[in-house]
Amino acid sequence: MSGVPSTAQQAAQTISQAVSRQDGAGLAAALRLDLGNTALIAQLNSSPPLEQICGRALVEPWDELLLEQLHYIKAAAAGEHEAAYSHCERAAACFQAAFEKESDWPVPALHSLCLNLRRAAAAADAALVAKGERAARQQEAARTMQKFFQVCVTDRAPLPVSKKWGSVAVEKLAAGQGGGAVRAEAGARVGALVVINALFHVYFAINNLRLCQNLIRAALDGQTVEGRHFAKAEVVTYKYFTGRLALLNSDFGDLNAFEEQLATHQQRFIRHGSYLQEEVSRKCLGGVSEVSRHGSYLLVERSKLIVYRNFFRRVALLHPDKSTKLDIKRFQACLKATNTEMEVDEIECILANLIYCGYIKGYISHAHGKLVVSKGAPFPPLRELGLTSAV
């Protein structure tokens, strides 16, 4: 794969060669412009004749695409985020015009375009909010990326050259590793995974999760991403967002499958039976809004009841006479032993929620301060509730 161009002339030449050779990887590299490209930014700040540079090396709409990309990187480097987004959006429109007429070879460049557009929209929205104006650029970016998505999933070309494949075998095709065999695989609708992941990023950022479900249904059409030749990074991103959606919707069946796959492919570093050291846990304090935005706080809240269920089950197992009538004050004493102070009423409230959710079979005798549990399976296995037991 070609390196990232350090001058406008190199970018124009790289795109020209990529178009003539139908080299999607080379095109993606040429469009991967970022603020770390100091040599290119220095040249852009010297006001070179960009229109001439682009026009001499490229034909329409590739010349305008590069021109807008160069204006985008220059504006972004100068902190002019609203102007940068406008240029980035126009570059995306130019790419769409070319993408609709080509076969699937420009697909690797989708990632670069979507990433640039998403970052530019987020920066523009932050600038608008700082001025007290309504943030709407990410919504506009989502509409633009939806057009990319529609181009992919509605392509009627034969499968070997279909845009439906999106990111399928991008890495293999770039390295020349038998992309033809991969393309012959059935189920091409999952091919727009690059655009799907980019839209996931935006929809979560603007809190429009309803559209995520619509996107999954339209893209997968009853199929899955397992067993297909996607780049691992794309699959991990897709699983991350679908896992968050399952958590938000309390769809613990899908969430359980996601966690099992994660546990299978990742090493575990969690130590059971020991507390985190204070210097480690101190780093996790504060930043509530950031934790909430990433969904971590919701994960903790959803996990609380399961933790309480497991704790109360352990206490019940320690009961000397194995009675079905458990003293709530015993729960209170055990909680206090873990440095958790709770009133009896608060414990009863937690128990009521556990009973309602099916984690405990029984009822609360408030007058006697007892939890009366069923003789048979008072704490149903979490697997029966669609969860993985932690005990």
From TrEMBL:
It holds the Pfam family PCI. Gene3D superfamilies: Winged helix-like DNA-binding domain superfamily/Winged helix DNA-binding domain. One of its GO terms (cellular component) is transcription export complex 2. It comes from the Eukaryota. Residues 297-375 form the PCI domain. One of its GO terms (molecular function) is RNA binding. GO terms for biological process: poly(A)+ mRNA export from nucleus; post-transcriptional tethering of RNA polymerase II gene DNA at nuclear periphery; transcription elongation by RNA polymerase II. Belongs to the CSN12 family. PANTHER family: PCI DOMAIN-CONTAINING PROTEIN 2 (PTHR12732:SF0), UNCHARACTERIZED PROTEASOME COMPONENT REGION PCI-CONTAINING (PTHR12732). This is PCI domain-containing protein.
